[in-house]
Write a structure and sequence with these properties.
Helices cover 81% and strands 0% of the residues.
Amino acid sequence: MHGRWRDRVETAQLWAVFLGLSVFFGAALYLSPGPGPRWLTGAVFAGLLFGASMTVFIAVMRRRDQRAAGPSGIPNRSAVVHALRTGELPSDEALDPPLLALIERRRRQLRWASKINPWFFGCLGALAVIDVVAEHDAVSVVYAGTYVAFLVYMRHAVNRGVTRLDRLESAIRDRSNS
């Protein structure tokens, strides 16, 4: 099924998340172009630090999702993750109460993101423009363009996420009313 790999990534064991993020970030840092010699030990340490911090963040988010889902938690995490990602109604009606609670939690997260993202990426873009004026280099122009692209994409992604959650909530409510 198309897109199931994303469900597997989102429901992966925390040790696999740590390992994957550590290796990816460390390798990206070590192999990225730039002046001067590469420091393998520094890249490994930075990768481990990044992997650990992101794994802790993911663990906290999963625990908050479990708490938000209610006293029984999330019975089938992969089905719930797939439903929230795609807006498709799962076949198991027992997932409806936790899904409704998680829909409300995701809406709160999207409201927060719609307020913070423009400021965050706008400030990064402004710093990149200042860097373009100060340094006159092409890399700063690429950074500025990247931040503007992120700003536009995040705006679209938030709107798409709200629409997807509305569609899922409507389908759950229709199923419970019939």
